[in-house]
Amino acid sequence: MSSNGDSNGEEKEKSPDGCALEQFKKEQRKFLAAYSQNGNVTRAAENAGVGRNTVYGWRKDPEFEVAFGNAGEEAADLLEEEAWRRARDGLRKMKFNGKEPIMDPDTGKPYLEHEYSDTLLIFLLKGLRPQKYRDNFSFEGNIQQTISRADPEVKHLADFISQRIAARAAVLAKSRSSN
Fold this sequence. Notes:
The chain is about 55% helix and about 10% strand. By secondary structure, it is mainly alpha-helical. β1 (about 1-5) and β2 (about 10-15) form a beta hairpin.
């Protein structure tokens, strides 16, 4: 971070893009709060008053990347909670005949039906008990394959995987050391 003097002769820290650090962090916090609620970078960036490209620039900072990942997990948790509710508790839906609501002859009020989401139920079970509910696949036999790093495709893939693991390990190490 760079420092610039203000009119009082005091030094004020600046963010990489020249904004006052306090405002910069405030925008990041506002983005992360919105992103944790909607899981959509564009909408969360609009809410924070920044462009989505700004957010992708922020993601180069390992500390922000960890916070971004955590906010994404929070958004996923909200969706999972809603999936559980719809699968377990269902929804009350008004039924229609064309554009006209079907009326209950006894009450004279619109007819409501309780619907559950079997699809959500299936996905939740597959996620929680994949060994029992996944789309099964079995394989029997032996495979022997020699993979050589001399093969350009294998070398490229191995290098890519090594770089990704090293980057993730650095982010996690920094996250742990700041706690």
